[in-house]
Amino acid sequence: MRKLIYSMGVSLDGFIAGRNGEIDWGAPDEELHRFHNQQMREIGAHLCGRRLYETMVYWETADENPSATEYELEFARIWQNLPKIVFSKTLEKVEGNARLVRDGVVEEVAKLKAQPGTDLALGGAGLASTLIELGLVDEYRLFVSPVVLGGGTPFFPALEERIDLELAETRTFGSRVVYVRYRKA
């Protein structure tokens, strides 16, 4: 069975975006970007909600940007080839190697996890909240930035039950970002 991996940049106080949706504090440097590139190469598909999809659609044409760095171009190629499943009730269409799912989130994710292949990535707080609450997330990968936002969009939803985890990996980057990977205990 494929694992579902929730991975996002997060402030020290647990937010993936500030009060006004700002994410500029989490922009990766070259070292961190290359690490993201490697992780994305190992993923079989990326599941995202509308907001994250709208942010990431930039990468569908990023390879046309003449000022893009080599590692950004590499990420763009990886992203363009990666199958994406976008969960949204409001979007009319999606671009690139993506398909739109309007209903049946739980059934769709269960079906994807049961298929053979490499693990699945999950991004976006709204979709992740639903899947965390349903116990469908197997692994959490946080890229903790040295910033306290004081509010915004939380990485984790408020939960009725705790989730016991075990630490699987840590790494500190030159940018002072700390990567922590946890899996369900």
Question: What does this protein structure show overall?
Answer:
The chain is built from five helices and ten strands. The protein has helices at 30-41, 50-56, 70-81, 105-114, 125-133, and strands at residues 4-11, 15-17, 45-49, 84-87, 98-101, 120-123, 139-145, 153-154, 165-172, 178-184. A hairpin with a 5-residue loop joins strand 9 (165-172) and strand 10.
Report a brief summary of the structure.
With 185 residues, the chain is an alpha/beta fold. The chain has helices at 30-41, 50-56, 70-81, 105-114, 125-133, and strands at 4-11, 15-17, 45-49, 84-87, 98-101, 120-123, 139-145, 153-154, 165-172, 178-184. The strands form two sheets. It has an eight-stranded mixed sheet. It has a two-stranded antiparallel ribbon with strand order 2-8.
Question: What share of the residues lie within helices?
Answer: 25-40%
SSE-based structural type: alpha/beta
Determine the number of helices (DSSP H or I, runs of at least 4 residues).
5
Q: In total, how many beta strands?
A: 10
Shape: globular
Q: Return residue spans where pLDDT drops below 50 for at least 5 consecutive residues.
A: none
Radius of gyration, whole Å: 16 Å
Average per-residue pLDDT, rounded, comes to: 96
Main sheet overview: 8 strands, mixed
How are the strands of the biggest sheet laid out side by side?
A: 5-4-3-6-1-7-10-9
